[in-house]
Amino acid sequence: MRKLVFKFLWCVVLSVLVSSCQSTMAVKTTPAPTEIQFQSAINAIYEQHPDAIGIMVHVEAPRNNISWSGATGFSDKSRKTPIDAKAIAWIASNTKTYVAVATLRLVEDGQFNVQTTIDKLLSSKTITILRNDGYEPETITVEHLLSHTSGIFDYAADLSYFEFTKQNPKHRWTRDAQIKLAMEKGDPLGAAGDVFTYADTNYLLLSEILERSTGKPFYYAIRYLIGLRGKSLDETWFLSLEVIPPSARAPVHQYATSMGLDTQSVDPSFDLFGGGGLVSTTRDLAVFMQYLFNGKIFHKPETLLLLQTKANPKQGMKFDYRFGLSTIEVHGLQGIGHGGFWATAVNYFPELDASIAVFILERDQRVLRQDVNQAVVRILQDEEQQSREK
Fold first, then answer.
1. Quick check: 66 and 34 in contact, CB under 8 A?
2. Backbone φ/ψ region at 153: left (φ over 0), alpha (ψ -120 to 50), beta
3. How far apart are CA 240 and CA 274, in angstroms?
4. What's the pLDDT tens digit per position in 57-114?
């Protein structure tokens, strides 16, 4: 009799445990209403614009307990492989924010300041190359490089660069070769501080400054100065320069169809040495921005303010650029972040304490980044409104 009672009680306990586990699993796997809205929004955008190939998004909004990655479409347009929301992608010029942050970390450490002229920081070889093309390195400062007001020509502004890449996709570039190409393709655009001209060349020079100031390769310096590993941003690295993390998913294809380019057929050195180069997940990119604007990277609050210094060339400008950052406006809210050649973008919205990272896999449909931002911000605004009314 005792054995029967014990067996009965054990079955009851086991049944409760199983029921509890199933309930717990349901809580963990069932999307929250807000997340369902995010997914529905990007699905709707994709349905109207299937030429986008794929859309990847991450929303990091800790105030609303949101950390959501979503995607729709395909990771390539030939095999039609369903997209993985946690896959990696080339983030292109979003890399400039990381370079700018690492540079200002050196400013914090007293290595130099933003008014230091680059003739004191670059190699004699690079200084000679600049002087031979008519530049005056003793008048160009770190601030000029960070804000694209140095007057230095951009090698990537010449369409022949993309045509060469299309014809020679596996060509392996070096930073020195790209700097030299900038000197060959164009003359100085003006004296330092006169004009704003967005140029990858500025950030290639900053990557050399990072190397010479730390004695380490620039990619190692960026990882160390920002503390990427210690902040669990392990799926952010420089492709072909660093070891692929074991947790990394397969990379997506990113297309610039009108230019005949696909990231999976182009050597990473096409855009690698500071002007671009990082690969990341949408999650890592958005979380990095949260860390940056919530005081978890810089040691001093004033350095974050310095990062947001507006470019102020003598000739004025309509485009709002900071140090490796620019601003957008969405539904009356200002976002601050950066975009990249391969239709990537991330923006932090202070009023929402939220970061939104967006990857559109077809560069020709890059305008959809704004559509996604508008949809996500509207959902977050509604969520905030509902929270206030409770």
1. yes
2. beta
3. 14
4. 999 999 999 999 999 999 999 999 999 999 999 999 999 999 999 999 999 999 999 9
pLDDT at 1 over 70: no
Q: Which CATH number fits domain 91-353: 3.40.50.12280, 3.40.190.170, 3.40.710.10, 3.40.50.12780?
A: 3.40.710.10
Task: Report the amino acid identity of residue 262.
Answer: D
| pLDDT score recorded for residue 196 | 97
Q: 45: closest CA among 36, 37, 35, 55?
A: 55
Q: Return d(Cα 169, Cα 166) in angstroms, integer.
A: 5
- In whole angstroms, how far apart are CA 118 and each of 186, 199, 276, 321? 20, 16, 21, 21
pLDDT, residue 29, reads 53
CA distance 292 to 343: 22
Q: What is the pLDDT of residue 388?
A: 82
How far apart CA 292 and CA 235 sit, in angstroms, is 17
Please report which helix (H) or strand (E) contains residue 375, including its range: helix 368-389
Nearest one of 359, 308, 363 to 337, comparing CA atoms: 308
Distance separating alpha carbons of residues 384 and 117, to the nearest angstrom = 46
Count other C-beta atoms under 10 Å from residue 376's C-beta.
28
Whole-structure pTM value: 0.92
**Cα separation of 70 and 93, whole Å?**
22
Angle, CA of 89, 97 and 363, to the nearest 5°: 40
